[in-house]
Structure formats: structure tokens, C-alpha cells
Design a protein that fits this description.
The complex is a heterodimer of chains A (about 400) and B (about 120). Chain A is of the alpha/beta class. In chain A, about 15% of the residues lie in helices and about 25% in strands. In chain B, helix 1 packs across helix 4 and helix 2 packs across helix 4. Classes of the chains: A alpha/beta (about 400), B alpha+beta (about 120).
Chain lengths: ~400, ~120
């Protein structure tokens, strides 16, 4: 033996993924080892399906949810990221979470997906005086997801997980707490590995649906972390903003693209995706609600918006983050007792355009967007695979 | 098989180990096809990552081959290199005969040998 030898370990994969991810809850025993789908950028494409506000329950729009969940599973994703609000129920201050909701969630949002990340929505958490119809189902829903790689965070229901070439960070919106301290080191580590960074929570920090000025607080905190993509639900709409950077005066620096193609470093792209099955409420500006109408610069940053049932598939490879927004149109049946419009009995609400009006039943692409990696670390540590 | 090849071909320059998230015992088909190549791996044992995590490895090579599977990854600063070999048991799942199954193992065996022959220089 030479005086100098190299210690090498060959790590094998095992068929744990399927076994544990389909169980009620994923193991959290990750002491010294992280389990990831890819250890650093490599030539794999991981597909994540993203949906929000699916709203099982009596206050939702069941035909919409039924069509969305069916279409979602047909896209054959590797993982599901749910942006919260799984249950809408009519009772106020419910004593318990009826099992019928959980049974439906298991069938539609758990069993089809080998890996699941769930965000807590305000309708999932316990009811309180400002949200008396909240279902209180979160303690039954949370164990159905796949857990975090590293659950060591200051609060419950927050954490990160590596999925393919991306770090996904889940943040709790209720109440919001600045995540910088626990999240920033993980983001920096992910960046070192050349991974994409995606953050997800329930209540959006920027929206034209029902505008609340969070520019000096939440938006500033999030953009300072420089994620590639920020995803939220809550508003029952689809909104995508061009990548934006907040300058020192909190003014937006926007990179616009008519084609939806951007480069990493252009800024953070914010998306609101809450069209999984809830009823549609018109945007504040369409309601002539001045207080909650977004200011001009927010509209300037807006790339697309629509009131529609939809979901997003995100195809993540090392060099490109490609999003496809799927519009799901339900058959327009005049005898249907369900109506996709919130407060549908009011004439005004019926005058608000919905994306699917006049479109045939079915699933189609509403839009596509992509963020291309500008700079990648050299591949010197990745030998070429042996020739076959 | 990778450990076996490394011990067989590179014992003068490499101390080779292998481990997984779970220990399942040696795969008899792997043993058989390695034996065909003159490498006896029966003395190797199937071990869990936890059993070797205190060893200061210079390199960790993940050899899982499918994007929809999980690779275990050391969280320390060891350099991790990924080589995506196919998983022979998975390839052989639908084999109609034992010979057909063994052919899958042979194919991966030979690919691993080709890679191990380039070690450790290819890692620097």
C-alpha cells in the first residue's frame, strides 16, 4: 500500500423514497444526513406541481377543485407544493375538523404525490375572532406532508427542503415573523451549491387582488434574501409579477419581458396562485375599491393576472426554472348548483370577467415563464459519466 | 459492486467503503456477476451510513441513478460527487429470465468498472 491513500465511500440509494413518502408522515430522523433528490446541480429535471386554495368543503367551488386535482395528477409531478387553504367549511368556531375533509385531502392531494410540501393557510389554522370560519384542520393536515430536511427553526410549520436542484423554503404567514435569521444561512449554502431558491407561504406580500402595503416590511425582508421565486396563495387568482429588486429607497427596479423569459439576477419573481378550487373574488380595482387597489408601480410590475382555476408546474433543472401555468376550465352548466363566483347572486359580481368564460371545458396552457441561470459554478467536481 | 471494483483495481491508492440508508444484505446477483469478473465481494458487508459517518472520507460518491430517488448526502464538508449509474435491481424488475436479469447487472458492473478505473485522478 502506498503511504497515501484516498478514502472514498460509495453511497447507495435505496428504495426508501416510495415507502416512506406514501406513509402518513415522512420520517424526520435526518440527524447527520440530509436526504435530497440531488446533492448538487446535475442533469435532472424535477417537476413540482404548485397549487393553492384548493378548499375542500362547502364554501369552495367543488367542480373547480375536482377538475384541478385531476389535471394536476396527470402532469405526473415528482412533488406537490400546496400553498395553503385546504379546507373551507361553513360553521363558525368549529369544535373539530370533520374527517370527511381529511379523507378527501388524502385521496386527492396526498396519495398521488410521492413528495409533498404543505403551507398552512388561514383557513387551516384554528378559528379566532378575525377568522371565525377557519377549519382548525391543520393538525390533521400537517402530518400528511413529507416534512422538512431541517426542521430546526424558531417556529413550527416553517422549514426547508431540497427538491431536485432547488431549495424550497416554507414560511408561516400567521403571524409573520422575519425569517432572515434562520433562512438566510440556508439560502447562502444553497447558492454555494448552485441551487435555485424558492420561497412559499400563504398570504402574498405583493398582489393587485386586495392590496396591502407590505413594501417596507415583508417584501423588503423577502427580496433581501434574493430568492428566485416567491409563491403565495390566499387570493383566489393567478398573478405573476416581473422579477423585481427593491432599491435603497424601496423603489422597484423591474425587469420586464413580454415572452416571460428572464435571467437569474434579474430580481425576485413573485407569483400568487390561489385558484385550486375556491370561488373567485374580483380584483379590488375592478370593484372600484380604492383603499385596496394597488398603486401604479405595482401594476407596472404585473406581468399577467386572471381569475381562473389553475395550477402551475415548475420544471427545475440546473440551468433553467421553467414554469407552466395550466388553466382549468370547468363545463359551463346552467343547471349546476355551484358557481365559481364569490357572491354570485349580485349582478355586479357576475359582470366581472373570468378567464374561462367563452372557453371550452378542459385544460390548457395559460402562460409559460422561465428563469435561466446566468452563472453556474464550474463542473470540475462532476466527472463525465462513463461511456455506455 | 463499486466498492468491490475499487478494492480489486485500486487498493494501492484507494480505501473504499460503501453504505446506504438501509442495510439489506448483499445482493446475490451482484455477487454472481462480480464473481464472473474474478472479484469476490462476499466479504463485503451491507452497512448503513451511520456506521461509517465518523470516518473522514476524502470523497463521497453517490451512485444512485434516478432523479426520483433520494440520495443520502453527508452534510459535512466532504466533497460529494454524483455518478448516476442505473440501479440493477430496478432494471431487472421486469426480466423474464434469470439470464436476462443478470445481463442488467453485468451492464452496470462494466460501467462501474470503467468509472473506477479513472479513480482517484478524475476526482481532483
Amino acid at each position: 500500500m502506498k503511504w497515501f491513500t484516498v478514502k472514498i465511500i460509495f453511497l447507495l440509494t435505496v428504495a426508501l423514497f416510495v415507502n416512506y413518502s406514501l406513509s402518513e408522515s415522512a420520517p424526520h430522523k435526518t440527524s447527520e444526513i440530509n436526504k435530497v433528490m440531488a446533492s448538487f446541480p446535475q442533469e435532472t429535471v424535477t417537476r413540482i406541481t404548485i397549487v393553492g386554495d384548493t378548499g375542500t368543503g362547502e364554501r369552495a367551488y367543488p367542480p373547480g377543485f375536482s377538475a384541478v386535482q385531476k389535471a394536476m395528477r396527470e402532469t405526473m409531478p415528482d412533488a406537490l407544493l400546496h400553498l395553503g387553504d385546504f379546507v373551507y367549511q361553513p360553521e363558525i368556531f368549529p369544535d373539530s375538523c370533520p374527517d370527511r375533509y381529511i379523507d378527501e385531502i388524502k385521496k386527492t392531494l396526498v396519495e398521488p404525490y410521492p413528495l409533498r410540501l404543505f403551507v398552512a393557510g388561514d383557513n387551516d389554522l384554528p378559528a379566532h375572532k378575525f377568522k371565525p370560519t377557519a377549519s382548525g384542520c391543520w393538525n390533521k393536515i400537517d402530518p400528511l406532508d413529507s416534512g422538512f430536511d431541517n426542521p430546526k427553526t424558531p417556529r413550527a410549520f416553517e422549514g426547508t427542503r431540497l427538491v431536485g436542484n432547488a431549495l424550497i423554503g416554507v414560511i408561516l404567514s400567521f403571524p409573520w415573523q422575519d425569517p432572515t435569521q434562520w433562512l438566510q444561512p440556508r439560502i447562502l449554502e444553497a447558492r454555494e451549491k448552485g441551487l435555485w431558491v424558492i420561497l412559499a407561504f400563504h398570504e402574498p406580500v405583493i398582489t393587485t387582488a386586495w392590496y396591502l402595503n407590505k413594501r417596507d416590511t415583508l417584501l423588503k425582508q423577502l427580496n433581501a434574501l434574493e430568492p428566485d421565486l416567491v409563491l403565495a396563495g390566499h387570493q383566489h387568482s393567478y398573478e405573476r409579477f416581473h422579477p423585481l429588486i427593491l432599491d435603497e429607497d424601496n423603489a422597484f427596479k423591474i425587469t420586464k419581458s413580454e415572452t416571460g423569459k428572464y435571467q437569474s439576477g434579474d430580481g425576485t419573481m413573485h407569483i400568487v396562485s390561489g385558484g385550486g378550487g375556491a370561488t373567485f373574488k374580483p380584483f379590488a380595482d375592478l370593484q372600484k375599491n380604492e383603499k385596496h387597489t394597488a398603486p401604479k408601480e405595482v401594476f407596472d410590475a404585473l406581468a399577467k393576472r386572471a381569475l381562473m382555476n389553475h395550477f402551475i408546474t415548475l420544471d427545475i433543472s440546473r440551468d433553467i426554472l421553467k414554469g407552466t401555468v395550466w388553466r382549468v376550465c370547468v363545463k359551463d352548466d346552467p343547471d349546476d348548483k355551484w358557481n365559481p363566483r364569490w357572491k354570485s347572486r349580485k349582478d355586479f359580481w357576475n359582470s366581472i370577467p373570468l378567464e374561462c368564460v367563452g372557453k371550452p371545458e378542459g385544460v390548457g396552457i395559460y402562460e409559460e415563464f422561465a428563469i435561466k441561470a446566468k452563472i453556474r459554478k464550474p463542473d470540475s467536481l462532476t466527472p463525465e459519466p462513463p461511456p455506455l | 459492486m463499486a466498492e468491490g471494483w475499487a478494492r480489486h483495481l485500486k487498493s494501492d491508492s484507494i480505501q473504499a467503503f460503501s453504505a446506504g440508508l438501509e442495510a439489506h444484505g448483499l445482493n446475490p446477483n451482484a455477487v454472481k456477476v462480480m464473481e464472473e469478473s474474478g472479484v469476490d465481494i462476499t466479504s463485503q458487508k451491507s452497512q448503513k451510513v451511520e456506521e461509517v459517518e465518523t470516518i473522514p472520507f476524502d470523497f463521497v460518491i453517490t451512485v444512485c441513478g434516478h432523479a426520483d430517488e433520494y440520495c443520502p448526502v453527508f452534510s459535512c464538508s466532504t466533497t460529494v460527487v454524483h455518478i448516476g449509474f442505473d440501479d440493477p435491481p430496478k432494471l431487472a424488475e421486469n426480466a423474464k429470465t434469470e439470464e436476462e436479469a443478470l445481463n442488467h447487472y453485468r451492464k452496470v458492473r462494466d460501467e462501474i468498472r470503467t468509472f473506477v478505473e479513472t479513480l482517484p485522478e478524475v476526482l481532483w
